[in-house]
Fold each of these.
Amino acid sequence: MKTLARSGELHGFEIAHSIQSSSQGVLQIEEGSLYPALQRMLIKGWVTARWGTTAGNRRARYYQLTAAGRKQLVMEMSQFERVIGAIARVIEAN
Amino acid sequence: MERNVAMNWLQELARRLKMLIHRRQFDAYLKEEMRLHLDLLQEEKLKFGVNAAYAKVAARRQFGNETALLEKSHLALGWEWLENLLQDANYGVRAMLRSPGITVVALLSLALGIGANTAIFSLIDAVMLRSLPVKDPSRLVLFGNGLDWGISDGFPNTLLYSYPFYREVQKRNQVFSEVAAAFSMPDRVHGFVEGQSEAEAMNVQLVSGTYFPLLGVEAVLGRTLSEEDDQTEGGPPVAMISYAWWAGSLARDPAVLNRKLKIGPTIFSIVGVAPPEFFGTKVGESPDIWIPLSLQKEIPPGWNGYDDQMFESLHLMARLKPGVTITEANANANLLFQQILRGFSKAPLSQENLNKLDKTHVDLNSMATGFSRLRWQFSEPLKVLMVVVGLVLLIACANIANLLLVRSTARARELAIRQALGAGRARLIRQLLTESLVLALTGGALGILFASVASRFLVRIISGHRNTLRLDTPIDTHLLVFSLGVTLATALLFGALPAFRATGFHLSGSLKDGRGQGSSSSKGRLARALVVSQVALSLVLLVGAGLFVRSLMNLIHIDTGFNKENVIRMHIDASSAGYPEDDRLMRMYRAVEDRVRSLPGVRAASFAGFTFNEGTWNNSIWVQGYLDGHRDQDVHHNAVGTGYFTAMGIPILAGRPFGPEDTTNSPKVGVIGETMARTMFPSGSPLGRHYGRGGPEHADDIEVIGVAKDVKYNSLDEDQQPGDYLPYSQNPRYLDDFAVRHSGDSATIASAVRQAIHEVDPALPVSEVMTMDQVVTGSIINQRLVAQLSGFFGVLALFLTCIGIYGLMSYTVARRTSEIGLRMALGAERSNVVWLVVRESLWLVGLGLAIGVPAALAGNQLVASMLYGLRANDSLSLVAGVGLLLAVAALAGYLPARRASLVDPMGSLRYE
């Protein structure tokens, strides 16, 4: 979601790549697991999808974040930061 | 915020639904996306210069398992439960088709069981439960119970009221927002739709102007009757018609408000059409036409009760004011009742009557579901039948549970394999239950189909000889909810036990041995318990049916006093044809009698006030010389022609019947029944003695000239009651009945008689032509209904039980083949083997009977009041039931036993 928020409209491959490059290869996920997650977000109404054409002139589905998705992102980020902060504090305390 | 959450949820559901509907597209899109992703990955790898095959594998590794991802995406949709359900249902259908024998038996018993329940419930719903189709029916109350009908001058009367009484209550009460009155019986007249020459039977309901406003019923066309229509006697002749009558007799004429009706001498304008669901306030009597009470004198027979304080003929109903409870209303109604009656100038306010009045209370009853004699007459039989069909359904459930149990044994291996492969027990139970549900739903659908036919048939039985009862039993939501509930309960009932049983085995054991020896003994115990309960329930049903059938036989063999063979009876509506109640009427009666008597095949013909089961005309009589001892003796009167005793086959035991010598001017005479002779003329012969009606001063009015055999008046099971006959020549009045004794075919005679009547006067409406036999049969329809249906269901229960025993024994024999083979190899005779199996089935039945006999005896006590001429613990019914069950059990056990005895010892041993 974060990726989509940053880059606007992307298709699945681009999203996967974007995640990998921005994590500098630390996050090696099974790229396919992106798709069930995207379907979940479609149902929740956090993203929308439309068909477009890639640079290589192939049909691809482009995903875009919706307003609801943005709101969700903000919520999850703050949640995430709180958890990370808590973990960091626990580690530092030791 | 709340709303937002709900909105989001709804939108999400909409998206889920959309995706479910476009699932193919969803899949195709996903696959295309994944393919693109894979391709791009592969291209990327190729750029690094690896070979094509490696690139493909590497891309796949990086992407993950495509099929698994696709499935995971499906889970995101959240429809997997539905998919599972459909899959299970599909599997269930296939399982049903795989064993058609079991399926057919199961479906048939389910359809009959659920159908019978639905049909009986539809009647109960129509007769007892359904609310009146009016505004806020729960605020409506009825004065009295609505069971009495007719015209009375009794004092004080809490069931029927006069028109002036209605007006006083309306004026003086403080608890009702509106009061209305309706004539207590429908007026069946013959009238004309203007412009048509054929007279038509019409059911007229006289109502007060407040009737429709009280109920809050609006006309679908025109207007309803209103208070303005009911202001002055003989006021504007207006009529409102029912929707059904508009649709039938007027062919939905849109210009209906310009049409006129001619009833008697009066021409009525149609002012409105009632809504289709409105059938009146009395269940089972749907009027065709509503006419204001102010016009009662204008339609035949010309009642004259508009200002008569003691012409008690109305049912009174009222709507409670907001906030008033029925108890408060009752108090006010009783106060008014006392005040109004005491204020009536015409009321017979003797000291004795005033004492009676002091002790009299009016009961207000809720009118939410309308009121009806029908309910009073049929609620008990219907409840009994509901219990009966409920038990039948239970037996059917037990049967199907057994069948499924046997099948699940056969499937034990399959289920074990599935469990071994990782299917959860819950998942398997769910699947087995879904299969039961598929079975039950199919059976339920068939049952509803069956019920729609059966309920129409039942309504016809209940209607008996009357015009078909106007009772609606549509398949409505009420009913569907009921059937669905029954179906689901059934599925659970027969499906749950086998499902739990079938999945609760020890895996390894079942896998090792397909026949599931390990759990079969407990399975057998369950199956036996089911059969035992079937036997017990069947016995209850059979014994009950035996009682009802025997009770009916007793009723049928009661001596009616008249000879019901070879008599036809019809109604002739002289008042609608315009005859006044005087000499002209009597001359017409005589002319019709003479004309009909001259027909070939007719032995006698006579008009009469009543024949049988048509109500009575009661009066007090005073006997000469017994002024005080015999006052106020209620006696059934009947006005008849000279041929009546011959026509009805009532023997004259002493004296003579009426003859031509008994004329208007000759001394008044009467023929009395045996009971009247015995009770009112106890000493010596009654012939030549005198009695009279209307007061002690009339005690020598009528001379007794004959004594006739006692007859039944209204019902076969009534006690013998005193009654007399008077010649109509001396008692001019409308006589609706015409009885004809004939030889030969009754239908031929009936049409010849009808023709002869119309030769005398073509305008005379003739209706309800029946044989006396049909009339008598019609009077015991509810006993007949209960006897026939309980008999039918008893046999059905027996049959189902028979199947149950047969199934269990076949299963036992199949399971014990090797044991039987061994026994035979060791020298057991075939007869020993047969006995071995039959003994087991008899043992089961014995156990069932041991439970069933006390249950049947207890159940019978509940229906004791519905029996005639026998006690509830009637031993013949009990012995017959027990005998029948034993015989059937022996038969059902014998067939598998014979199969067992034909086992080839060597073959079965080798098989093991």
Note: Chain A has a mean pLDDT of 82.
Amino acid sequence: MEILNALVALSNFVLIPAIAYGSQLALGALGVTLIYGILRFSNFAHGDTMAFGAMITVLVTWWMQSHGISLGPLPTALLALPFGILGCMALVLVTDRAVYRFYREQKAKPVILVIVSMGVMFIMNGLVRFVIGPNDQNFADGTRFLISARDFKKMTGLDEGLAIKTTQALTVVVAVICVALLFWFLNRTRTGKSMRAYSDNEDLALLSGINPERVVMYTWLIVAALATTAGVLYGLDKSFKPFVYFQLLLPIFASAIVGGLGSPLGAIAGGFVIAFSEVTVTYAWKKVLGYLAPEGMSPDGLVQLLSTDYKFAVSFVILLIVLLFKPTGLFKGKAV
Amino acid sequence: MSDNPYQDGRGNKDASITNTKGMGTMTPAHRKSGPTTKVDGGPFLIGDTMTGGYGKGPDILHDCTIAVNPGEIAVIVGPNGAGKSTAMKAVFGMLDVRSGSVRLDGEDITRLTPQDRVVKGMGFVPQTNNIFTSMTVEENLEMGAFIRRDDIRETMEQVYDLFPILREKRYQAAGELSGGQRQQVAVGRALMTKPKVLMLDEPTAGVSPIVMDELFDRIIEVSRTGLPILMVEQNAKQALAIADKGYVLVQGRNAFTGTGKELLEDPEVRKSFLGG
């Protein structure tokens, strides 16, 4: 019984939140890695792209809620998500046309594009806060729990409850669908293959008749879809606050680099590595250890290795450790 | 190139923020295609008295003429720095041709971009980085046929028949193949567009003599199908031996022109380029 209780507590406070958070990071890191692989620079504006897509979704969700449109037990945001994706696509295409294309025509070095993306980041950041304000916005509705702690206790008779939020389950399901679609697209379709070809060898892609502008456009569209989805899922799971998305850039970059920049598989693995390390290091293990430790030896303190304020530090320590031993990331990416 | 501040590579080496692998280096002479005009007569593909250089730089080619007809292999040879590859690039539209013209199949294509020349039927195999290393052999061939919308399976079978080893390795990443096999992938990729003319930039660079002989055999085989082949070669002797037409370039000018056999027998050419 004690072991089961420990296991349930662990799942409730570590495993399930980490899986949900990991899926969100993985979706975000996929976008970063795609831009890195195909447009060849690290897009610092990614966090704010996520925020913009999520903001559109939030606005459409509110509009739908005010008109009584809902999805029943599922959050209305799911219905608004396609609109958010479209809005985000429009934003990145306009940005690309207005900003990035100029530098592409100049054949600017990637490092210049990195700095340019930082400028774009500040503009997007301001835009989002201008439209929706800097505060926390709540837009989650529908059934809150798939299984609530009380039901679980009643069902199993354990002391510990296991709660699975609808948004957590939803996050994992949507993430799996997105990733499957993305891999199918990149490996099976003509356009997807042309994107990989362009990433591999730009000159030869040009000689093969692949239109670079088209490849770039498809990349932005996919990145917008991934970023919005990641942003909405994160917002549903926690809450929507523009500044948090800006900060989210750090673990997302850590995920992409840990997994190996330019490798989609690596981005997913990296997302989970970072999420699990963040959650386990900042979790107070008192409860779980209390069940496992022999009688009278249960810890007095919280057994929390680091305060949650330091969670971003954790991603970077992991990043450093991985890069020290495997400079190309877990999956062989392009970074050296 | 260094006059453009955007191309200053300072700080560009941090691979955790910039990805320079596979970055485009091509500098086409025209960013947008100009008009083409119909011309009558002349060889199938000809770079006619071309003079020009890269960007705003000095002239590298001086009244250089290169031509090839169906069923022929034309080879460009010459000492290092003679402008062999440059002449080929001029034909392909990567060099600003300031006077002279490039004509393909009765059409003046001097003002087309390289991409549009591919559409017009030029198959170009660069000297280096001529395959997609991270993609499988089959995907490489598929990408070669990217501009085609019809069924490519037949062409792919033809390429596999020409290079049987590629059929065996079709699901392997092209980057894992040996040097000779990579060149076969590169030529196969160019053949997938069903080009009207095939241009090879030093196809035997960096492969062993045995592989080189085999590659030459394959090139002859391709040419027997009636496809004109224009080739730049370092191994002048072997290349001239299979050439119907040879062009010896020196400092961007036509020094000697003739059939492969004539050039091989020419005492002047032998003395200066073929080592006696």
Note: Chain A has a mean pLDDT of 92.
Amino acid sequence: MRGFFIKFLLLTKQQDTMKTQPYFSFTGLFWLVCFSLTAQDDKSAIKAVIEKETLSFHKVDHKGWKDSWLQVPYAYWSYSDSTGTSFVEGWEAIDKTFDTYFKTQVAGRQIDVARQGESLTIERAWKEIRIYNNGAFVQYIQKVNDKLINRDETSQIRILEKKDGKWRIVYVGIIAKYPAE
Amino acid sequence: MLMLARLFLSFSFALTCLVVFGQSDQEAIKAVIAKETQSFMNVDRKNWAETWHQAPYSYWSYSDSTGTSLVEGWETLSKTFDEYFKTQKPSKGKITNEWIEVRVYGNGAYARFIQKVSDEIDRDETSQMRVLEKKDGKWKVVCVGAIAKYPR
């Protein structure tokens, strides 16, 4: 009787396993697809907010530019080229620093750096987008093609955070990239 | 009542774990950042290399009033500092890191700090950033950004 009971249990377990295996495989595949779709969505959203930050800056769209930042005390902006370096720490200081730019620049005026429409195109070569939960680290090379002035190619770093489902920038690092001598 | 007490205990335990792990991550991140700088200054190549996640997306940059340098990818990075590690002598400078922010995002982290290096002759201050990744339980540096900070 004991032997029969064990055999019965094993048989039932085998049948259960056969039933559950495809179920588990299907569940696993489902989560894998969901995971890669979310990662793709995140990557696209990250690229979009980076593009928005740069474009709104060049087009003197203060609201659009501000929206792309996470306005926190640890926000950071820096720019370095062969003539020197500048960096600004904290959202309040960043906003204040660029206040004059957004008030005085006129998009398309030759003496200004702001541009409208086709006079400016931005090329990006994405090098790396690393997503860690609600944080991301991005590296890319940017070339701004401006019909009026010659601009340097730059190596760019961004750190972003996802808050309330939206990716926003917390760190901008820009370094001019010169051709190797 | 017993159910409520159990719930409260579980919640307190989870919260304590979260705080403790968060803190230990922050401490481990600060330690690896300090080790990266210290081993570089001590011309200790083995320890310096160990603090890096040796990936194609590793990145190093330094900028001051005289210009900028940037290196992309671990292979290039290691090659760039080859001469430094072969020819330089250990520095006696004292290093202090003033932490501004350490953000931990699971297996990734972003840190910012002001670094002060002083010896008998000179005193340098730089605004520094790091990106780190946790791999096999260990935090390693993937991005170094340093900008000279001058008195206003």
Note: Strands of chain A lie at 76-81, 84-89, 120-132, 135-146, 153-163, 166-177.
